Give the backbone structure.
Amino acid sequence: MSNLTTGLAANLTALQLHVAFWDTNNDSIITPYEIYNGFRALGFSIIFSLGGLLIPIFFSYPTTLGHSWLPDPLFRIYTDGIHKAKHGSDTGVYDSDGQIRDGLFHEMFEKMDTQDNVTDQECNDGERAWEGSLGVEDLVRLHGRNRVAADPAGWSFAAMEWWTTWLLLQKDGRVWKEDLKAMYDGSLFFKIQDQRTKQRGWNQGYGWRDWVHTLWHHGTWRTWEVAESQPRTIRAARSTREL
């Protein structure tokens, strides 16, 4: 995939860096083919990667406005206009120029990380280990908090984004702060691609094999609950290759 030089990366906004992984030839244009290949390189299945083609269908036109009033017939995404593709009901971590608001990012975890708000007296054994992460319930609450009135498109886009994020990043059933920050600045995607070329692979995420295996053998889709009796170094979900 794309291999950004330090000089090139220095001239990009955080949002441009977020999508740079899919710009394989660094020409500031992302084609539907590059989007499909990018999801495959991250370990997503063919079906899910084909679903990723909804991204250029919905977001191509806003990014072309700096070049033409006419829609791009090839549904290409122009990364210099990616900030124009921001939708409503999002977290607001990216500002209108595509830069990260660090204060809002940290505030998001302070307000939504339920484990971080538990006092020492209320805390159960091991509960503190989950600080700095968001579980499924936390993400659902975050999505609900960010929804604005009369914005069904924004609600849908945000839900799909969080669903994809959880499928790719979950570890012990939770999305961790450092992983999410690396996803916002785009560096995580290159890390995942690199690790998937090594023997151990990317050992986070949740794929359909995890769902089928755990549901069949243990009667639950929550693989991390099944693994609670195992050493913490053993992760329930090993790969997103067959999502």
